[in-house]
Amino acid sequence: MNLRYATGQIEVICGSMFSGKTEELIRRLRRARIARQRIQVFKPGTDDRYEKEAVVSHAQDRFDAQMVKSSVELLRAVDDRTDVIGVDEVQFFDPGIIEVLDKLANRGKRVIVAGLDQDYLGRPFEPMPQIMAIAEYVTKTLAVCVRCGEPANRSQRLIATDDRVLVGAGEAYEPRCRRCFEPDLARQLDIGLMDMNGVLESSRPRDAVDAADSRSTDGETR
Length: 222
Ligand code: ZN
Prior knowledge:
By secondary structure, the protein is of the alpha/beta class. The chain has helices at 21-34, 71-77, 97-106, 128-134, 183-221, and strands at residues 9-15, 39-44, 54-56, 62-64, 66-68, 84-87, 110-116, 137-141, 143-144, 151-152, 154-157, 173-176. Strands 5-2-6-7-1-8 form a six-stranded parallel β-sheet, with helices on both faces. Helix 2 (71-77) runs parallel beside helix 3. Bound molecules: zinc ion (ZN).
């Protein structure tokens, strides 16, 4: 990565869980510190794993960080003199983060963000796609599939729940490759909900028919 960035830039580090995103973020921040850059690191308030005031990797690597509740709070907390801004778990921020990161890069800041690119069903995890689109650099980190040992880019959820976010539940996931990934495993509850919706859906046309019948009855009485 180029260490000159007078014009400002956005760097994205993304991948599945256990792929070393935070480690890579910390590595880049350390290099910036060696280069005597002024650094500020942020993380969203929802992530209370490990310690509150630091970005910590699974390997217990750490870098001091400030917790912020929203993209607006992040923007307000940035010091004008800061050269490098690091953000971990960026996928947990509100959609306003896209504009905030763009604004900071436009002010000449080097902005480095790390986050999950896909959710537990393998769907793009907003706002990551939008941030990747406006970034100068995108690095995809890969984990190792626990099933077959191939490079893994999916986060396999091991418990049945349809919550998109399971904070502090690292043991509920394992990295898997495209071939070994089983979204249906985590979808069991979703399927239950879909069946319920199916019942609701089949009752809906009946309501519509009833409504149409009453309308035609009205027509006849007129
Ligand atoms: Zn595999």
